[in-house]
Design goal:
alpha+beta; 24 helices; flat
Amino acid sequence: MRNLVLLVISSFVLYGCVSNPIKPLSGGGATDNDVRYNIFYDQGDHLKGLVKSGSLDEAADLFAKYKIEFFEKNSSLTGKNRLKQYSSDLKKIAFYLNSTVYEPKLKTQSVYFDSYLDWPVIQSDWGKLEKELRLSKKQVEKYKSHPLLGMSEYTAQVVNELDNKIKAVEIAAKESARGAFLLYGIANGGDFFLDYPVDLNEKEVINLSFSEILSELLSSGQVEEVENFVDSYGEFLTSDFNEKIGGLYLSKFIKENEDAATPYLSTLMAGLVRAKELGLNPSSSGDVKIAFVEVTSKTLLAEGQVEFPASINMDLPFDIKKSEVGDIFADNEDADYIIIFDVAMATVNRRIKERNQAKSTYLFGYNTVQNPDFLARNMDVQNARMSLQNVSGRLCYGQGALGCEIAKLISVGVASAELKKHQEVLLETPQTLKEPIHKGYEYSTSSVDVKKHLTANYYVINNKDRAYYKSTFDVSENRKFNLSYDVKDEDISKPSLTKKYDPEESVSDYEERAVDIDVSLLLSHYLENIGEEERLDSEDEFRLSLLYDKNQALVAYKERTYDARPLNDHRFDHVVVIYNPTGSIGAGFYVAPDLVLTNYHVIEGGKYAEMKLYNGHETFGKVVKSDVRLDLALIKVQEKGKPVQFYDENSLDLGATTEAIGHPKGLEFTVTRGVISAIRKKESIFDTGGKEVLFVQTDTAINPGNSGGPLFLDNMVIGVNDNKLVDIGTEGLGFAIHHSEIQEFLKEDF
């Protein structure tokens, strides 16, 4: 058998059956780049040669490079584990690296930690010890990540000794941390956890030491020491400990700042505000009882002047109650102080800065096309088949015929395997592909600024001294939104567009969301004006003052109801342009200061509508009510306007002059004139199967863009322009929803 193997190999060499002949080495110390590895000379042979020649650094580099690719795999010829096969050479490399590179330094570091195994350690040594621990851990980590030395059989004993000493020092330091913390000083302005040489669980150390901390802070009697402690360690306190430290701080603050000339509430509030600034939450305000009452006007709430709530964040330990104006004193007779909060106005202003069209691309469908990979894989199969035929047809003769036949069999086997592989790949390759068809389109975008403004009155009543203070403060905030409309579901950029634009709901969510008001901020405002209290002669007098302030807010609200600037034709003040999110345009008109009526088909497909008034202002509205059969929709708008007056007689004179105001074909605020042609019932344009709708038939010109606008008889509205008959030879047949249908719609509670 051995002779047969030698014969095959000699035949390979003699008759050219080996495609890559051996390349001679450049010498025993040759690098990896000087060598071409093959079945006769591999990386293991190269490693042995380098070790034999004493090139141990190069041998270590060679092992690191081919550890996974070669040395960790079994030999393909013998099946032996290569790491075991070359273990004697690897031991020589490891011995060299350990003895000359690593062990001297590691031994020195190991000896250094012997003096730190017993704790406590003086504070002056903490910094140096922390540095040595950090450097030694990095050194051990680097050593253990070495491709050869990181293997347990080649790891120096001193490395494990050093690693164990590092861990022992850290354990001893952690066990001694609580005592070291108390000895360090809890309120000296320093940071124990930054100075200590090992990492600690800050909350655990603080919690274990809390009884000693509280005792020391109690005995010190100084506010500054509590502040120093909180500045350094406040973030590590549990909520329970935070309340206890907060109560301790408040009592010390009041004791330290008490002054006969300063009202107690002022000192208390200053302490509470300062505690809040430190991040402390005292569980109570001491012996003083303070009640917080909200008394926002029901009228303002009912009429929508308070468009979003105020969320009172009770970040100080007060009670909060809801009381009627007449019951403020009765409900809170046991309180030393009463803080009253009254929202006078909370308005939202939504301004559409611009409307634009943006271009994008959507997936329209697919074309079936030839797969070029299939053609390439088919060609691979043909080439492999021809290669097999060539090898199979090779003739062997003469002295080396036997070796040639053996080589031929091997070559046929290789070519057959190659052909099979290409055939399998071909079977997995589809003959055709679906090529996407993309088409361009446009969608709408809007840039929207939303501004929220809240004005509130607040009062502080001192029940003991029979005095009160009142003031007003404002809170404003704003946010910008970028909205998109009509983005197709098939848009190839839909995920990125979703991230780029805000959802429509986010605007209304923001508008309706409460504005947070911290009580601590309100009290800070009061403290700036302490000493300006008024005498509380009687409860009735205070109630009158409170009601007067509330009525002033109502008067201001009525004055802001709409803009009364004079125009040539005041009817235009009633009318708005309505932009449907789909890009179409319609009309509408005010039926209440904050309600616009239009056709359902004008806003169909959207919950919100952008609008423009005759004075050029832009505003925004939300659909709050609709009736598809009547083709009517009601929109609550941001900017107030002048409501129309509806015709209230039972009959209309045929031939009476009518006028329509709308925006036909985008020509905004156009007035057209005609007459009342008839009053008749006919089916809804939506053909919903319900009862017929009463219409005013008119020859007044109404066109796309007039929909939803008013049909006037003099200064009164008799209908909502709705639809017209369009046919060859037909004109002047327009229809407006009768005013009686409109008024019933407005009365209904949806």
